[in-house]
């Protein structure tokens, strides 16, 4: 009977040890992934600088001006619906204050740096595991926000290109 309990205790101990080692390995892997994500997110956020946002805003202003000139000079007899939709989207972006977009990006950069500091500090000192989990959670959220930001700018780029092509064709006399 003692032998059976002892065998069971050994099996449970080995299982728990394996579980904890697996858990530690998973946690270490998660930390490595988070560290890689931080670098990737920082790289992406750095691409969306204030000057890039201002340049896009200026480009959209030029497109809107050219498009309105085309409309008033009747260079194009019929404007396709996708072009109207693109113009509406660009106009909406143009009318939104760029200072808000810049502020959101600054906050994302700042928060990302704070979370990175928490993780780096946790490697040196013993920090509450909840604080580390919180940092990982915030970093994942920032990653989702960055993904949405990239999608937004891809959509803007597509619509800018569509409008530029249409304006060029209109100025060349294609109707």
Question: Top keywords for this entry?
Answer:
175 residues, mainly alpha, 5 helices, 0% strand
Task: Explain how this protein is built.
The chain is mostly helical. It has one domain. The protein is built from five helices and no strands. Helix 4 runs antiparallel to helix 5. It starts with a helix and ends with a helix. This is Secreted protein. Keywords: Signal.
Mean pLDDT across residues: 75
Distance separating the two termini: 94 Å
The domain count comes to 1
Number of strands: 0
Uncertain residue segments: none
Largest sheet: none
Proportion of helical residues: over 70%
Main structural class: mainly alpha
The rough form would be described as elongated
Secondary structure tally, helices: 5
Task: Summarize the helix and strand pattern as letters.
Answer: HHHHH
Organism: Nematocida ausubeli (strain ATCC PRA-371 / ERTm2)
Keywords: Signal
Signal peptide: 1-25
Protein name: Secreted protein
Summarize the structure.
With 175 residues, the chain is an all-alpha fold. It has helices spanning 2-47, 50-72, 81-95, 98-124, 129-171.
Summarize the helices and strands and which ones pair or pack.
Layout: H1 2-47, H2 50-72, H3 81-95, H4 98-124, H5 129-171
